[in-house]
Amino acid sequence: MEVTRLSLPPEEIDSALATGTAMGEDYADWTAIKGIQLEGAVRLLAGREREGAMALYAEKFDFLKQPIAVVEKALAGVNWYCLSPSRVYFVDNSRGFGHRDEIETGYD
User: Fold this and answer.
1) 37 and 57 inside one domain
2) Is the same domain home to 41 and 93?
3) How many CB atoms lie within 10 A of CB 42?
4) By residue range, what is the domain housing residue 25?
5) How far apart are CA 18 and CA 5, in angstroms?
6) How far is CA 17 from the centre of its chain?
7) What sign does the CA torsion over 82, 87, 93, 95 have?
8) DSSP E strands: which ranges in 25-105?
9) What pLDDT does residue 1 have?
10) What local confidence, expressed as pLDDT, does residue 48 receive?
11) From CA 80, how far away is CA 20, in angstroms rounded?
């Protein structure tokens, strides 16, 4: 699964009212594209929240259980964010180009 990276620098994201991101596999055939699009508020994580996000990331990738200096150095410079979705869509191009259905989240 590929996650679109945030393209704004942190100082601009902190002042942004909303942002969006998309997640999906890497498809060669656009008619097969399926994935998720999110819209919502984003904020930079710091302190314990940042440490918690880093710990969750480390749990996901087994290779991070063994210390690798170059990887640890790279991750230390990463900004970690929380995206609170206000809208979530499931994209399914097999139903037509750009077809998406909104998913009710219960977040308001």
Assistant:
1) no
2) yes
3) 20
4) 1-45+82-108
5) 15
6) 17
7) positive
8) 34-44, 81-92, 100-103
9) 43
10) 96
11) 15
Strands (E), the chain: 2-3, 19-24, 34-44, 81-92, 100-103
Residues 60 and 93 in one domain: no
Question: Is the domain of 35 the same as that of 55?
Answer: no
Same domain, 33 and 65: no
Instruction: Please list the residues that pair with 30 across neighbouring strands.
Output: none
Q: Which residue, 22, 29, 31, 40, is CA-closest to 82?
A: 40
What residues of the chain score a pLDDT lower than 50?
1-5
What's the confidence (pLDDT) of residue 92? 93
Tokens representing 9 are: 């620098």
Count of Cβ atoms closer than 10 Å to residue 100 Cβ: 16
**CA 25, 31, 35, 38 torsion-angle sign:** positive
DSSP-derived secondary structure letter, 51: H
**pLDDT tens sequence across 34-62:** 999 988 888 889 999 999 998 898 888 88
Domain co-membership, 41 together with 90: yes
Do 29 and 41 reside in the same domain of the chain?
Answer: yes
Task: Enter the pTM of the model.
Answer: 0.64
